[in-house]
């Protein structure tokens, strides 16, 4: 009976070379798949983070712009990309120009101070020549100003709608996930009524 229990198995221990090659091949395929998933996830995170940063600066710019326009009088509108205003809210009389660049590079702002002893600061603002030099946004920003002027005859108050598209790429064409849109409308005050 002991003889029957003592059967020895004569198998060699370990793996064959072919089994090791197949295991390594499967492991390499799994690592490549995980690396691709991680890489695409990281690129998605990087794109969304960049878009978020550009969107935050555009939101800050649109808020400053709306606050300034609310207390300003429109001097000149050039197309729907540039607007020049006289700002009544500042201690110094400022003539401010905002411009969306055609290539989507940025929303730019520039200002010049009008002499406080001026008899007609609005005319001085109209005749002043300066250009916007400071970026208000980061990334690619395309935008427009849609202006409805005050009309005292119809007793309507003017308004300005500011529309922006913040893009990740050189243009906003292509994937809509690579852009964000901002828009706000500001009612203008009629300063002739306020002063009388």
Notable traits:
4 helices; alpha+beta; three-stranded antiparallel beta sheet; 196 residues; five-stranded antiparallel beta sheet
Structural summary, described in words:
- The chain has one domain.
- Strands 1-2-3-4-5 form a 5-stranded antiparallel beta sheet. The protein has a 3-stranded antiparallel beta sheet with strand order 6-7-8, covered by helices on one side.
- It is rod-shaped and about 105 Å long.
- The chain is α+β, with helices and mostly antiparallel strands and 196 residues long.
- The mean pLDDT is 83.
- The longest helix is centred in the first third of the chain and has 54 residues, at 17-70.
- The protein has helices at residues 2-5, 17-70, 121-127, 191-195; strands at residues 72-78, 82-87, 93-100, 107-114, 134-135, 140-148, 159-167, 179-187.
- It has 4 helices and 8 strands; from the N terminus they run ααββββαββββα.
The helix/strand order is: HHEEEEHEEEEH
Q: Describe the sheet with the most strands.
A: 5 strands, antiparallel
Find the structural class using helix and strand composition: alpha+beta
What's the count of strands? Answer: 8
Count of individual helical segments: 4
Rg for CA atoms? 32 Å
Number of structurally distinct domains: 1
Return residue spans where pLDDT drops below 50 for at least 5 consecutive residues: none
Mean pLDDT: 83
Helix content: 25-40%
Strand order within the widest sheet?
1-2-3-4-5
Distance between the termini: 123 Å
